[in-house]
């Protein structure tokens, strides 16, 4: 079952012909709920207009030439409707629609002021809704939320009142349902001359977003506004069996412990009744689940019991609290514990990772749990035939079919596999197989090592070629490899870059193997040889120390126990660096690269500043001046007005959509704007 709803600014309908045409249009569209703004109605004509519509309707009047809002329901509409509120100036009206299986939906019809100053205070003070309910807030808001998407041409400034409207939407956890469905589309509901804007909205509670089946802008022929249409599912979908999880609070109770102990003693003796322990254990888990569920039922305090306790508490408080002080305190403790446990259960289920006790109210977690439950609910699924299925049985069948197909073998050709094995020429002999399956001897461990290495190539020659061919390129950081050439930029991926063919680069065979990891079985550490051992493994093996420091993190080892004792007395431990701040690591590597860049033959006096602004000692070694790695002052960059406007627009888009602009694209756009 579903409800269709539309928001229409009719721009006045005092004229009989226009009013009849509007009513006829609404009836022909078979829309359940029609929310009208700017009706220009008055109390004098309310009865007449209600009779003309025939269905149920609720009106809040303005004057004969301004304001006025109404909510009309089709004659076939079967749900119970109650008006819940209206203002005194003909700008808001709200109703409650009682749908089956839940607390219903609250509909708020809004017509915001045209005047900018009035509009700001209207959004801040005059629209009052309860965000604990499932709300639909719709109407003509007379301002655009996102000027880049909802206005044409795009104005320099945001509409007055748009900030307050955004705050209202965020505070009440509402969603612009049309923009959610079409995040990048540019369509408009109001047109006057060359100006177009989308100022008519339907906002819904986040809990309802997965129930919206259809959202669109519809042409309305009797006004300068188009309508906003939405179709919403009202019935609660049938839920599957779900997943059972053990309640840890149940197993902490005395009742569970006593029940489990009496069960476990007899159950262990029945192991021999099963073919194997695995079958016994599977049956054990089923038994434990049954016990837990049964104990939980006995421990569960119903809401009816709580109401009885609260009623008894009121009676005692109102009659003779002094005479029943013990019972009074006992009831207070029980009621308090009940609500505390319920709140804690909700907090856990809501999965708030950053929660700290006292930071958020219980109501927050109840609402968050409802929201997460709605997000996890599957309301429909696209089948393998391309059609959508929305009943629970079809959804489960489609899921089973998907995973069955996913984990089903696609088959293999046994004859082809056997033929492949038979035609392999190089095979291990039976003798070699036995040797390979033997345990590794200590001599073999001493003889062989496994090292992980990196091939290190000196790129100095390549760097010189690049520097000589491309002025001002001082590093190899801004480059990309292609099949035919090396492409370099001053700033990465900005512009076409400079292409250097591989044929222009001289081949460099000056390669070294840099040992990254020297591996050997950790259980045989005491037998590892010194790195400087000779090739004669049998005569010159130097065993490593076998007494290791027991202090956690210390890497010192000793050949005798007395040396270890002296070490422990002195406490002179060496610790292996396990973690290092990336900033410190970057500074260290950068310093090393600068040092390596200066040859030992460089002349200069100790403490004398070179052309690069660095110190060189008399021995030719590079010495960093104090504070060389600290950040220096950069020249202040002044952005143009166009650049500031572009950055603000991109920030607003990111804030709204949660997506960041591509940095390379943004850099290119900023460069172009700087030339304007």
Automatic annotation (TrEMBL):
It comes from the Eukaryota. Residues 7-225 form the Endonuclease/exonuclease/phosphatase domain. Signal peptide: none annotated. Keywords: Hydrolase. One of its GO terms (molecular function) is double-stranded DNA 3'-5' DNA exonuclease activity. Its EC number is 3.1.11.2. InterPro entries: Endo/exonu/phosph_ase_sf, Endo/exonuclease/phosphatase. This is Exodeoxyribonuclease III.
